[in-house]
Amino acid sequence: MPDKFSVVPETMLRASARFSLESELLASALSRLQASLRPLGGMCGNDEQGQKFGSGYDPNAKNLELAFQNLVNGLDAIGRGLEVMSINYQGGDAASRVRTGG
Q1: Window from 5-19, 23-37, 43-57 with minimum mean pLDDT
Q2: How far is residue 6 from each of residues 50, 82, 89, measured CA to CA in Å?
Q3: 5: left (phi over 0), alpha (psi -120 to 50) or beta
């Protein structure tokens, strides 16, 4: 006999809240990082060596920033997905209960 699949919607709902919280915390940390790095624009200088370094550094820094933003969005999407799934399970469980009497 195959193993049973079981879901506890309340546990899933708590997990969804944690994903949402972590998304918010990461978004806040990213905002602080962006605010502290913004004044450093052009930090590589305008000489040839600075421009050479900056041409490699700047695109990678932008990619890292984008990766963090994608992580923020991903955590939020997972949280919302778990919340919706939990609500759907709760609704399905409620609808499948046999009601007796009038």
Answers
A1: 43-57
A2: 59, 15, 11
A3: beta
48-96 helix and 9-37 helix, angle to the nearest 10 degrees = 160
pLDDT single digits (tens) 33-62? 989 988 877 777 888 888 888 888 888 889
Work out the angle at residue 96's Cα, subtended by the Cα atoms of residues 94 and 99, and round it to the nearest 5 degrees.
85
d(Cα 70, Cα 60) in Å, to the nearest integer? 15
Among candidate residues 67, 95, 93, 71, the one with its CA nearest the CA of residue 12? 93
Q: Mapping DSSP to helix (H, G, I), strand (E, B) and coil, where does residue 46 land? A: coil
Tell me the three state secondary structure of residue 7: coil
